[in-house]
Write a structure and sequence with these properties.
Helix 3 packs across helix 4. The protein has seven helices and eight strands.
Length: about 250
Amino acid sequence: MPIQTKTLHIPTADGRADAFAAFPDAFPGGGRHPGVLMYADGFGIRPVLREVARELAGHGYYVLVPNLFYRHGTAPVIELPEYIGEEARSGVLAQVMPLIQEHTTERVLSDADAYLRFLTAQPEVAAGPVAVTGYCIGGLLATRTAGAHPGQVAALAAFHAPVGADGPDTLAGITAQAHFGHAESDLTPEALRELNKALDAAGVDHTSEIYPGTVHGFTMSDTDAFDPAGLRRHWDRLLPLLKGALVNG
């Protein structure tokens, strides 16, 4: 399926967020596609995120990937090597962590309002509910967004993400169908049981599992955490979730 891509600018309460969008070429007679708001990991928009967005768009979705740290400049906000290996990781994280720490929950929720308003206003996006997905810290942002917009977000997916970091209150607002794919290095089986117990208590329709043999960041092919089997499992979980909630739902 041919894919179009665009660089866009999203009006927010604090300025304009640059964003990457990928969506299928319109077939004869037009056509609109379910919307997906995709939150990047802490390293931000870069070739691997664009690749993931294009691949998802190829399954029939309009995918919007905002620059989370637009308040500090356009993407890439920090200079990144082509491959974020062990030697480069500490230096990159030293630049990224202050940006993450400044990205408060208040900012996240204000931005989420703007991102969803912009996404659903695009002429290529179908009316109806949307999905939110995210990687690493982006998975936590996706979870917060789903909890704050229960009537609008029908599907939530987060991968190698600290989705339980905010406690049960955020989970209680989620009405979306959800999938959480955890890295083996991020979550012990006991911690997984506790998280799943909290999701059950909140009434969240979810699957939540540890992906065997994975470490934090396993979906990102430009890092030494990349695990091809983990990425395949991610697609095997994500695509049916989106289809069930947005296409067949």
